[in-house]
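Much of what follows relies on a compact textual record of a protein's fold. With that in mind, consider the following protein and its fold in token form.
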Amino acid sequence: MEPTDAAQIVTDAQLVTDQVEFTMWSLFFRADWVVKSVMIGLIGASIWSWAIMFDKWWRLSSVRRKADNFENAFWSGRSLDDLYQDLGQRANHPMALLFSSAMREWKRSTEAGSKHFAGVQARVEKVMSVTINREMLSLEGNLLFLATVGSIAPFVGLFGTVWGIMNSFTSIAISKDTNLAVVAPGIAEALFATALGLLAAIPAVIAYNKFSSEVGRFGSRLEGFADEFSAIVSRQLDDR
């Protein structure tokens, strides 16, 4: 390469730096409307994903704390009837709701008379199963959105990048000029879309894996409590 050619490349690069801003705002406003749409969609998905993450973190933390307090009260030796009366309408977390629904069915069945005792345990177990399914669906809400963002956001960003590079090559063909002043801005705008896609996808994937694991562990905890309560019901029926 001739020294004059190298000097010209350096000069062109300096002109790009001096004349074109490469801030995030400038990259966005200079982009094609298709690339802008992609960027806006990815930014919106990222914001909504973070809102879901904070909501899930707060709710799961609250649910675990309330479940710990409830289990301490449940195994403290208190009468189950007293605990049920104390809860009343204050059963505001999955484990308390599971206990309340089971106790409600237990009381209905036992108050109906001894001839109904044979199916009491089956009915209590069915009620607990339905309650667990309902509460798990509530806890899993919006996790699908995180999974969707984590899987498709990089491809959406890649689409914006491909579209932006196509526009850059079109500009090169029209101007018949391949210096950095023509090529660099369009490529930078295009790559910015991919960066936004990764920015939306990576936290969403990490959060989805974390919260899915925590929800699964809490579901196992509910099922374990249901099994223990079913054993208590069985002993009560045997005593009667």
